[in-house]
Structure formats: C-alpha cells, structure tokens
Design a protein that fits this description.
This protein is an alpha/beta fold and 344 residues long. Bound molecules: 5'-O-[(R)-(carboxyoxy)(hydroxy)phosphoryl]adenosine (KG4) and zinc ion. The site of zinc ion has 5 residues, from helix 4.
Length: 344
Amino acid sequence: MTTVLGIETSCDETGIALYRTGDGLLAHTLYSQIELHKIYGGVVPEIASRDHLKRIIPLIMECLNSANISINDIDAIAYTAGPGLMGTLLVGAGVANGIAYSLNKPVIPIHHLEGHLLSPLLNSESPQFPFIALLVSGGHSQIIAVEKIGTYVLLGDSLDDAAGEAFDKTAKMLGLPYPGGTHIAKLATNGNDIYKLPRPMLHSPGLDMSFSGLKTAVLTLLKQLNLHNNSFIPEKIKCDIAKSIEEAITDVLAYKAQLALAQSKVTNLVVCGGVSANTTLRHKLNLLKQTHGIKIYYPPLKFCTDNGAMIAVAGHARYKMAQFNYNFKVNPRWTLNELDPIHD
Ligand code: KG4
Ligand code: ZN
C-alpha cells in the first residue's frame, strides 16, 4: 500500500492531494488564484509564485488533517515539474524536495500533461488501454495516442492558440473575466449559433488544429456590429456570439477526435484538461458513442481543471520507477515525448 502526496503549482492553482493504493483519493485541497489575477486579465507570473509560497504549506496541512494521516504516513511525494511557469514550478519543486529530504522518501517529478491524461483514473471506472486522448487546456490542444501509462505519441496539436486560450482571448474581447471558458459556456446556454464563425482546419486531412483565427473573426464581427473598442455589448448579442464561439471550437475538437479514432482504429477516448468541462463538447463527443460505438472517459468534473489529485495519481503510477532522495527538476517547456517511459 503506497500513499503519495501530490503537489501542483504549474500556473495559478495550488493543488494538493493524497492518493493511496486501493483506497484511491484520500483528500485534496485546492486554492485558485483567479480572483488575484482577474484585474490583470491573465496570470501574472511573479504574483502567482508569491501566492503559491503563501498557500502551499497550510494546504498540505489541511489535506493531511482531512485524510486524518500524519506526514510520516506518506511514501512518496509527486510534484509538477513542467511544463508551466518557471517561478511557480520552483515553489512546488522546492517544497516537494524539502519534505522528501526531511522524511528520506522518494520524490517524483511529474509532467503536468501526464497528470491531465491520467486524471480519468480518479473515477471508479478506469480507462481501457489503448486510448486516444483529446487533451484540451489553456495551454494545449493535443491529440495523443496512449498505448499504456508512460507511452504517449503526439498525433495532432494546435499550430497556434490552444482551445482554452481561444476561449479566454475571445471572452476578453466580449469584456468577460479571466479565465473566459466558463463565462462563454454560461452565456452560450442562452445564445444561438447565428454568426457561423470559421472552423479552421476542420477539413484538412491531418489532426492538427488552429484557433488563432477565431480572434480575428470575432474582432471583425464586433466591428461589423459596431461593437468594438470596449462598446457596451447587448446581452442577447453577447450570448449569440458566445454560442457561436463555443460551437466553432467544439466542432473542430469533436471532429478531430473522431478522425483520430477512425484513423487509429482505437475505440477508447479520454477527454481531459480544463476545456473537457465544457458541456457542449461533451454532448458532441457523446454522440460518437452511439454512431461509432466508442467508450469515452472524462475526469470527474472538479478535476478537469488543474488540481493536485491528478499529480498524486500520476505519481502513484510512476512510484515504482521513482528515484530515491533528491530529484530537483523543473522544466517550463517540457514536452510529452521527452518523458521517460514506464518499463513493465
Ligand atoms: O487545464 P487547465 O485548468 O489549465 C491548463 O493547464 O491550461 O485549463 C484551463 C482552461 C482555461 O482556458 C479555461 O477557460 C478553460 O480551461 N475552461 C473551459 C471551461 N472550463 C475551463 N473552457 C470551456 N468551457 C468550460 N466549461
Ligand atoms: Zn492544466
């Protein structure tokens, strides 16, 4: 029985969790800095690092208390080593290594995207291998073939903005707060897709995507409607634009996911990352269950966006190959194909 402490600090969420063999997730605590960065319209790295520093130890204590275990009961400490913001990663790496050193326990650097990919393991039904993953977050829109834990082949990527980034940037143009995905989704429930925004690269043969053109399309639309330059946008129009943005992005994601499944003849799909919380995307993908006979696995809704539980579960999976003692590593630009495979 192994108990892993997971620490996530790659961006603007301090996430802590405890995961144990057999019992699964024992406890998790999360502090989101959204309010702190709202006035800047995006994450300010230096402010983010300082806030992680302030929150991390109290959150670890709270997590241990809530699981009713002592720090000595931990067998290994997993932390996000990249990709992410250098300063915020250093906070998690420093604390993880400090605890590990003092307890003489192994420390496991985790790739943030592997955390997202394995987040459906937090559900009672684990994904079947092999699977295709649609990993859609604020920083990435990737389609990945996953043969087993640790073996990841990138099949498609966004050539420019990530899907979450497209939600966030177009939301900003509508005067919505950061991060915009949830705000667009909320408005979209009262809107109609009347503006028919472009679906870039929808019918290109490969699995790559492109979302940066949506910003230009929304700006052009606002100009046509004479609503640019911070003008007041009437609620009905705002809802219709939000729905049009959501439809354009989710059409591309659902189509490319379906294409990846068809090309690889794999029947299991994992959808993860912050954008996987989007109800319209889930609805479009769920239609594939009936038409293509596939199985779809999502993380629990609260673990779609960044959290410590996905790092703890990934750390638990990597425990066997962990190196004991000091392993201080951060890599803000770490890619998935640089990851060490897990040997059987
Ligand atoms: O995975 P995540 O927490 O952070 C990264 O690793 O980037 O994803 C955050 C992204 C943001 O861009 C946010 O706008 C988007 O996920 N997001 C959503 C929804 N909830 C979060 N996008 C669309 N619909 C949602 N319901
Ligand atoms: Zn993330």
